[in-house]
Automatic annotation (TrEMBL):
Taxonomic lineage of the native organism: Bacteria, Pseudomonadati, Pseudomonadota, Alphaproteobacteria, Hyphomicrobiales
Photolyase/cryptochrome alpha/beta domain segment(s): 1-130
Cofactor list: (6R)-5,10-methylene-5,6,7,8-tetrahydrofolate; FAD
Entry binding sites for FAD: Y224, T236, S237, R238, L239, S240, F272, D372, A373, D374
Enzymatic class: lyase
GO annotation (BP), single: response to light stimulus
Taxonomic source organism: Oricola cellulosilytica
Gene3D superfamilies: 1.25.40.80, DNA Cyclobutane Dipyrimidine Photolyase, subunit A, domain 3, HUPs
Pfam family, one: DNA_photolyase
Record protein name field: Deoxyribodipyrimidine photo-lyase
Family: Belongs to the DNA photolyase family.
Keyword match RNA-binding: no
Single GO molecular function: DNA binding
PROSITE patterns reported for this sequence: DNA_PHOTOLYASES_1_1 (PS00394), PHR_CRY_ALPHA_BETA (PS51645)
């Protein structure tokens, strides 16, 4: 009987345990992708990721076709689709790579049970993350809550396995199966096409991921420790969306950095791996605390006096807060589907502390606009910024957006790229244009309140208000 390989968060053919296992059996393989219509509404992709998914499936389908087998596309409830493919083809085995969103874990367990009753076996493999979140435990037996010991466990003794080779070819089933047309799934923008800026930056799919990895290893891993903090430099790997869709695995990345060990400074390699392990830590938190995306990890924050979002939230979303580094970040996100990590921290802190807006509004906006939106990293990072998370940055540490700009974008190059209306402001005032003498503003063609907004809150006052809100929550 043929074997079904159900592709989910693993849109790749290399280092894909389910696919490799299927190809080795010597029987026909049916690669299947299901656009799941589940009633719980979980994991509904944001707009930017729908665009990405369309192109990633296209890339996967073309790769699989060149290996000998078409990718079958079906929309519907996963169990019903699987039942139907099983009954038409007589398949007795479904292979998949595990996914870790709590609602996915529950759904997969249900599917496994239901298919077993029909005599269909599921084989579930690892691949999306380097560790199994329910198995990795502290010495006292519980899940980790603090990053440093989690990292220590990784760096001492846990050597991730080497990646698996891509199967050379797959045996087709020899009958034609019903498959949807990708175009009919409506994943691309309908209406104004906002995707040009994203398309200019990214190549979804496995080949795009490998190209990014190779370029990173060749040009950016040496120096990563310093360059990763400078948003005007292309100093990071930009592998995040490829990881989010499983076009590349952390095993492949870890192993590739190991191969570069002799050519790059150890400190850079370690710093990069520590970042990869933040992703692991986020999954660890999510699996062990399933409501991480919606509820405060630290329930003290349930009493936090958040303000109604209103116009302030839309000013933040549109990059019109009057703080140039914040606005540059939010516009980079809108235009390219990605934002530099340092700037994510600055805009996140600004929303939660300067504007006193609940982190869940920020998380939601990021979810809709990021190409790398990831249920674990997004919610863990937002809670980290808000101070409500595990091992979080304390709430009372409030980033000053002017000083952060001066420190990480001293020449203003990053700001000028995304906030062109400030292009002619001298570097000295690029992060606080309202303090530039009137003559400097007018020479630069800037009329605050007209060509560029005045700050929507005053830093010092906002800081004080945030601290008061925090003390109110603490009952002090
Ligand atoms: P690199 O610096 O090259 O890092 C390599 C990889 O390590 C990344 O691709 C990513 O998988 C992982 N990584 C790096 N930093 C972190 C981190 N702080 N937490 C978890 N994993 C990390 N990352 C996402 O992948 N999806 C999200 O939805 C997401 N939302 C975020 C929201 C906020 C408020 C903040 C502050 C950070 C968020 N991050 C998120 C983490 C981080 O900003 C991105 O992973 C990183 O900017 C991606 O760029 P890169 O691939 O070039 O990273």
């Amino acid at each position: 009987a043929p074997i079904i390989v159900w592709f989910r968060n693993d849109l790749r053919t290399g280092d894909n345990r389910a696919l490799s296992t299927g190809s080795r059996t010597g029987v026909p393989v049916i690669p299947l992708y299901i656009l799941e219509d589940e009633e719980d509404g979980s994991a509904t992709l944001g707009s930017a990721q729908k665009w990405w998914l369309h192109h990633s499936i296209e890339a996967l389908a073309s790769r699989l076709a060149s290996m000998g087998t078409p990718l079958i596309l079906r929309r519907g409830r996963a169990l019903e689709v699987l039942h139907s493919v099983v009954s038409v083809t007589g398949a007795r085995t479904v292979l998949w790579n595990r996914r870790y969103l709590p609602s996915h874990l529950a759904r997969d367990a249900e599917i496994q049970q239901a298919l077993q009753i029909d005599g269909v076996t599921i084989e579930s493999s690892e691949g999306h993350i380097l560790h199994e979140p329910t198995q990795m435990r502290t010495v006292s037996g519980g899940p980790y809550r603090v990053y440093t010991p989690f990292w220590r466990a990784f760096s001492s003794g846990m050597e991730p396995r080497p990646p698996l080779a891509r199967p050379e070819s797959l045996m087709p089933i020899g009958m034609s199966l019903q498959s949807d047309r990708l175009e009919d799934w409506g994943l691309l923008p309908n209406g104004p096409d906002w995707s040009a800026g994203i398309a200019a930056q990214w190549t979804p799919g496995e080949d795009g991921a490998i190209t990014r990895l190779d370029a990173f290893l060749a040009k950016r891993l040496a120096g990563y420790g310093e360059d990763r903090n400078v948003p005007s430099i292309d100093g990071t790997s930009r592998l995040s969306p490829h990881l989010a869709f499983g076009e590349i695995t952390p095993f492949q990345i870890w192993h590739a950095t190991e191969m570069s060990r002799d050519e790059v400074p150890t400190a850079d390699l370690q710093t990069f791996r520590k970042e990869l392990v933040w992703r692991e830590f986020s999954y660890h938190l999510l699996v062990n605390c399933p409501d991480l995306p919606t509820a405060n990890y630290n329930s003290d924050f349930d009493k936090f006096p958040w303000r109604e979002p209103g116009d302030l939230l839309s000013a933040w979303q549109r990059g019109r807060t009057g703080y140039p580094i914040v606005d540059a970040g939010m516009r980079q996100l809108w235009q390219t589907g990605w934002m530099h990590n340092r700037v994510r921290m600055i805009v996140g802190s600004f929303l939660v502390k300067h504007l006193l807006i609940d982190w869940r509004h920020g998380e939601k906006w990021f979810w809709d606009t990021l190409v790398d939106a990831d249920p674990a990293s997004n919610s863990a990072s937002w809670q980290w910024i808000a101070g409500s998370g595990a091992d979080a940055s304390p709430y009372f540490r409030i980033f000053n957006p002017i000083l952060q700009g001066e420190k990480f974008d001293p020449t203003g190059e990053y700001v000028k790229q995304f906030v062109p209306e400030l292009a002619d402001i001298p570097a000295k005032y690029i992060h606080n244009p309202w303090e530039a003498p009137a003559s400097v503003q007018s020479e630069a063609g800037v009329r605050l309140g007209e060509t560029y907004p005045r700050p929507i809150v005053e830093h010092r006052r906002a800081r004080e208000r945030a601290l008061n809100a925090y003390h109110a929550m603490k009952g002090k």
